[in-house]
């Protein structure tokens, strides 16, 4: 493998190559699972070297030397990302963190803002034409190679040969060191299974078949993929390929065939995992590994229609600011390109972005939804960029929402133990009104069973779900969209004002068992509008009073009948046996619908109103 054209005179040992490095040099080391471990050990053990600066994106092997005082006196380590093995060293000041977007690093190399004298990389064996591959680490490594004065490459037969931008000719390499060793394996730390399953349940609601995904670096996003087994024809345009993608590709869930940009190719910049991933990407034309300044830029990302960015966070504050690289002043990862993918999703036709995270940390003692970011925490994603935030307790949609709306959205998906205190903190911060009620302090996972969809006569899809406190503005907008006659038939008198105080009174009585409202919504230019609402309230153990109203343009489309039967399902689940309704004599459509839906029905009327009793099946 070292007899190809261009290799003559370049094949040396690691110690011989490292001996060419001078004191005061600035060295870039190939990153992540593609780092040349053998060369790093040789570098660290060359005692004559001093005053050397080492730059690396994702460092692993260097962690073995950070408790060695002699090493720290001779080498200064600067990282663009702080992996788990380096977190304590970063906190203790043994390494220096450089916050930057990975997509901007190549430009920093080209502009000589970061000067590189020598680069240490690992490559696949060159082919018969002398062309080798950077394998699992194209990302920023390719530009570092182009910018360096001296290139030292470890040839490792265990390095996959990947397609894309990462090909190098041996003529561009100064020293070649054949040395076989296993690549670094990167295991994803386990996420609590039930938490991951529930988060995935909500995330999947936002992911349509045929979408193109980016899955951000972190334990939670990759843990979600195992639950995507009911999706179809997904595509990939992401920064990192991990083991988690491979089963979905093999199962035909990820096909990339519906991508309008880079069709049939999974696009990424690097790979971190185990032999499961390394063997699968080896010489596999389905994958395209590009440079970070191409793959990770919003303009390129946005070329993918229906692009969905799924990333994680350490904290999200009540205004929507996201911290993903530090807990307070302790760095835990890096800036990465989270905000680039989120902005790319905004540029995508049909795109959206999701921040997915568990609601708590520290064994449930710490809320990740916080009133204010921790002191020293960095803002990785601005509040104006955040679209959806998902925890195991639901979905918060922040895009286009006011601060007060964001507070309610985020409190709804916080752990129930922290909801009341978050509302109190929001009031102290003057984010919300003083009379704002907190969301119910219980796990409302059971109301997921109340969600449903149906296709109306006009071909539109009606989505039905429980009404939530975060719906206040949409709920009030729905009321004001109704005609005066419709309101009169619903309330028996003219109502011209539906204030936030009235909405608060509605929430105060709703427990999703004895009292509940279901809303029906349809899409209008990408947004969902409430077009119907149905409510029941307990009368006694067997009977609940029911009422509903449908926007005029959706009447006679089957909305009322569907909503009525969905309310019955919920009421039956919660032990009720029938509905009672009152209406005006002139509301003949309501009376006719009740007769149509219930054969066991009793109707009594007076000059002023009509009373209707409707038994469910179990009471007949």
Description:
The chain folds into 3 domains: 14-178, Glutaconate Coenzyme A-transferase, CATH 3.40.1080.10; 193-428, Acetyl-CoA hydrolase/transferase C-terminal domain (Glutaconate Coenzyme A-transferase), CATH 3.40.1080.20; 452-619, Aminopeptidase (3-Layer(aba) Sandwich). It starts with 13 loop residues before the first helix and ends in a 5-residue tail after the last strand. The protein is built from 20 helices and 34 strands. Helix 14 (403-413) runs antiparallel to helix 15 (416-428). The relative contact order is 0.07. Helix 3 links the parallel strand 2 and strand 3 (75-79). With 620 residues, it is of the alpha/beta class.
Strand order of the largest sheet: 27-28-29-30-31-32-34-33
For this entry, what is the oligomeric state of its chains? single chain
Q: How many strands, which pairing sense, and closed or not: the largest β-sheet?
A: 8 strands, mixed
Looking at CATH, the homologous superfamily of the largest domain is: Acetyl-CoA hydrolase/transferase C-terminal domain
How big a fraction of the residues is strand? 15-25%
Number of helix segments? 20
What does the radius of gyration come to?
30 Å
Shape category? elongated
Distance between the termini: 83 Å
By CATH, the architecture of the largest domain is named 3-Layer(aba) Sandwich
């Amino acid at each position: 493998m070292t007899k190809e054209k261009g290799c003559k005179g370049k094949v040396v040992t690691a110690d011989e190559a490292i001996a060419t490095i001078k004191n005061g040099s600035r060295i870039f080391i190939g990153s992540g699972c593609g780092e040349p471990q053998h060369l790093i050990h040789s570098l660290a053990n060359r005692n004559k070297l001093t005053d050397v600066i080492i730059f690396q994106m994702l460092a692993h092997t260097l962690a073995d030397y950070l408790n060695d005082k002699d090493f720290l006196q001779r080498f200064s380590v600067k990282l663009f990302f702080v992996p788990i093995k380096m977190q304590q060293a970063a906190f203790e000041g043994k390494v220096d963190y450089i916050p930057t977007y990975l997509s901007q690093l190549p430009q920093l190399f080209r502009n000589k803002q970061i000067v590189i004298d020598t680069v240490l990389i690992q490559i696949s064996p060159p082919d018969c034409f002398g062309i080798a591959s950077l394998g699992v680490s194209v990302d920023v490594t390719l530009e570092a190679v182009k910018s360096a004065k001296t290139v030292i490459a470890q040839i490792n037969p265990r390095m996959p040969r990947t397609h894309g931008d990462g090909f190098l000719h041996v003529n561009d390499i100064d020293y070649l060191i054949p040395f076989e060793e296993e690549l670094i394996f990167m295991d994803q730390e386990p996420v609590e299974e039930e938490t991951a399953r529930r988060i995935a349940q909500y995330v999947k609601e936002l992911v349509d078949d045929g979408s193109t995904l980016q899955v951000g670096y972190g334990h939670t996003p990759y843990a979600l993929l195992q639950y995507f087994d009911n999706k179809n024809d997904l595509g990939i345009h992401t920064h990192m390929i991990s083991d988690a993608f491979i089963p979905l590709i093999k199962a035909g869930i990820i096909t990339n065939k519906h991508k309008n940009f880079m069709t049939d190719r999974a696009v990424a910049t690097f790979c971190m995992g185990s032999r499961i991933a390394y063997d699968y990407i080896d010489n596999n034309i389905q994958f395209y590994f590009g440079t970070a300044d191409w793959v990770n830029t919003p303009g390129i990302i946005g070329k993918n229609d229906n692009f969905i960015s799924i990333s994680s966070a350490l904290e999200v504050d009540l205004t929507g600011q996201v911290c993903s690289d530090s807990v307070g002043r302790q760095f835990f990862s890096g800036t990465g390109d989270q905000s680039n993918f989120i902005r790319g999703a905004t540029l995508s036709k049909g795109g959206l972005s999701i921040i997915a995270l568990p609601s708590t940390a520290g064994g449930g003692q710490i809320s990740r939804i916080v009133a204010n970011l921790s002191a020293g925490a960095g803002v990785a994603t601005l509040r104006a960029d955040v679209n959806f935030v998902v925890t195991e307790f639901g979905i918060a949609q922040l895009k286009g929402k006011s601060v007060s709306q964001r507070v309610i959205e985020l409190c709804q998906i916080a752990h129930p133990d922290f909801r009341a205190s978050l509302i109190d903190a929001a009031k102290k911060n003057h984010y919300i009104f003083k009379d704002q009620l907190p969301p119910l302090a219980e796990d409302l996972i059971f109301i997921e069973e109340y969600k449903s969809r149906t296709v109306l006569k006009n071909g539109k899809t009606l989505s039905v779900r429980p009404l939530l406190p975060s719906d206040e503005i949409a709920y009030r907008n729905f009321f004001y969209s109704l005609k005066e006659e419709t309101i009169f038939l619903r309330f028996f008198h003219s109502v011209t004002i539906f204030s936030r105080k009235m909405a608060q009174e509605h929430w105060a009585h709703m427990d999703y068992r004895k009292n509940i409202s279901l809303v029906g919504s349809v899409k209008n230019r990408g947004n969902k509008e409430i077009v119907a609402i149905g409510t029941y309230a307990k009368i006694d153990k067997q009977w609940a009073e029911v009422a509903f109203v449908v926007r005029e343009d959706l009447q006679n489309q089957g909305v009322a009948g569907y909503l009525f039967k969905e309310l019955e399902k919920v009421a039956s689940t919660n032990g009720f046996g029938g509905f009672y309704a009152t209406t005006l004599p002139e509301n003949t459509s309501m009376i006719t619908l009740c007769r149509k839906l219930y054969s066991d029905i009793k109707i009594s009327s007076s000059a002023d109103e009509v009373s209707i009793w409707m038994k469910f099946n179990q009471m007949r």
